Structures are given as structure tokens and as C-alpha cells.
Amino acid sequence: LKIYFAASIRGGGIDQETCRALVRHLKGYGVVFTEHICREAGGRDDRVSDEKIYERDIRWLRASDAVVAEVSVPSLGVGYEIGKSEDWGKRVLCLYREGSSNRLSAMIGGNKGLVVKGYREIDEALSLIDGFLDDSRL
Ligand code: 6IA
Asked: Would you state the pLDDT for residue 137?
């Protein structure tokens, strides 16, 4: 399975522990194109040009079988990737940590074309991933 994992980078950055736990779990299902984004979150990400990042990510997104997005921290990039994925008919799981200081955008939370799930503990998020990826429609 080829999985595109999306999470906020410049849009604030998700916490590293959550990022790593999600990526580690996703890797049990196959290739995670974006496994490096945890290390980049909140750190320097200017070693590669924005143009290169955009082109590579779009290529990966197009090639993916499923998209898992952590949406607790608002991110223009993640929102853009979710919109593209939806247009391309990909199944998208959006994971939102309940009680986050940012309310989830209505453009994500109100979209019936996406699978949007709230979680409190990381283990809950991992079970939600299992439910999503074990679905036979993939
Ligand atoms: O607007 P944001 O920066 O929060 O957007 C985050 C989303 O855009 C993530 O889901 C990524 O897929 C994508 N993205 C943004 N910046 C990068 C990036 N920079 N690398 C990969 N994906 C990115 C670091 C480059 C690194 C190789 C040095």
C-alpha cells in the first residue's frame, strides 16, 4: 500500500511524538512517501527549494492509494493536499485531536467526502488508522 501522510509543517507543525507514532504505525501497511516530514516539522526546511518540494509531493500524492492527514494544526499545505486528493477520488482519513486549541475548519469537518475522526490518545488514532486502512474498498 502506498500511503501519503500529510501534517502541518510551516502552518505551525504538529508535535513530533504524535507525528512519529502515526508514521511508524502507517509504515506497517506499506510505503509512507512522506515519512521524513516529522523530522522537518518545526525545523529548518529550506535545504530543498519550494518548487522541488511541491513537485515531488504532488507526484507522491497522485501515486498514493490512501491519504492520512493529521489536521489538528491548521496548514495551507495539508488543506491543499486534502482538496487535491478528494478531486482525484482518493480515500482520505483526517485525524483531529479533540481539545486542540484550533477548531477544525468547516471545509474539512463539514465535508462528507472525507473520513474525519477525532481522537484523544494516540492509541485511539492508531485504531482509527486500522479501521480506515483495513477497509476492503482500498
Ligand atoms: O503549509 P505547510 O507547510 O504546513 O504544509 C505541510 C504539507 O505540505 C505536508 O503535508 C507536506 O506534504 C507538504 N510539505 C510542506 N513542506 C514540505 C517539506 N519541506 N517537505 C515535504 N513536504 C512538505 C521540507 C523539505 C525537506 C526535504 C528539507
From this structure: 61
